[in-house]
Amino acid sequence: MLSVDGLDVHAGPVRLVRDVSFGIGPGERVGLIGESGSGKSLTALSLMGLLPEGVTASGRATLDGDDLVGVPERRLKRLRGREVSMVFQEPMTALNPLMRVGAQVAEVMTLHGRPRAEARERAVHLLGRVRLPRPEQIARAYPHQLSGGQRQRVMLAIALANEPRLLICDEPTTALDVTVQKQMLELIAEVAPALLFITHDLAVVASVCERVVVMYGGRVVESGPIREVFTNPRHRYTEGLLAASRLTPRGTRLPTIKGSVPAAGGFPDGCVFRNRCPHATEACEQEPALTGDGHAFACWHPAG
Ligand SMILES: Nc1ncnc2c1ncn2[C@@H]1O[C@H](COP(=O)(O)OP(=O)(O)OP(=O)(O)O)[C@@H](O)[C@H]1O
Questions:
Q1: What does the alpha-carbon distance between residue 209 and residue 229 come to, in Å, rounded to a whole number?
Q2: CATH T-level fold of 2-235
Q3: 172 CA from centroid of ligand 1 (Å)
Q4: Cα 70 to averaged position of ligand 1 atoms, centre (Å)
């Protein structure tokens, strides 16, 4: 589906992203992690054809065979928002403050040829799909009348409007408080067709993605299934990230989550892995698996 092969990003003579390669299969959720400045956003923006002025991409990236890099803007315009969509960190800057949110959701559909009345109707449906209460009412609201979490859901509705094949999220929950963040992550995991999820928060990746690509200094230093990379990191940088994260390594006692330590195979209330972890059985006792709710390895071997 998405295939990125030898992607480079330059600002003049400076190479900011070097030889990045990874793929995303249909329905797959892949996390792109790395410290600030490691090149995550530029990688994503290259795929959207949205690099800042003076910054250029080379190499190859295709979505179901369609080239995304080095193609004319008018071709990209057709793909953007239709085949691949992006949700950014700060919805307030992405939404038009003077336009009702329903009209903004409808607009991305009319731009891609859907009749206006149909787009308006579908906009309300989409606002409901991203679990906004009373979507008809929300459709008539202006962005400033909504909370940060609600605005981010509107952005997700916009991103999903034309049923893209790939959704890219760049730190979509960083600005939200913890409870709202968790709900948003669950929603993204549920509705994304295939997902590239950018964050510097390993716990977030652990709760949403199946695979992870680790970037450092503009390069990919490691990639693989979450469990493999997080339980057995090969690169020193990944080890450092893990050590600095809220995730606890194998064998250590879990921190108390909501007042209780989950038994092996048990999940704390609201754990997003509750129904998803392949080890949500006795197997958890045999093999430590990453099943946490974003806070820890919930399948754990008690220390001592
Ligand atoms: N318009 C630009 N011109 C020149 N350099 C840039 C430009 N945009 C980003 N950079 C540089 O490219 C590098 C990668 O930036 P990028 O935004 O992709 O990092 P990131 O991993 O997404 O970081 P963050 O997590 O802080 O968003 C950084 O060193 C950054 O300073």
A1: 12
A2: Rossmann fold (3.40.50)
A3: 17
A4: 20
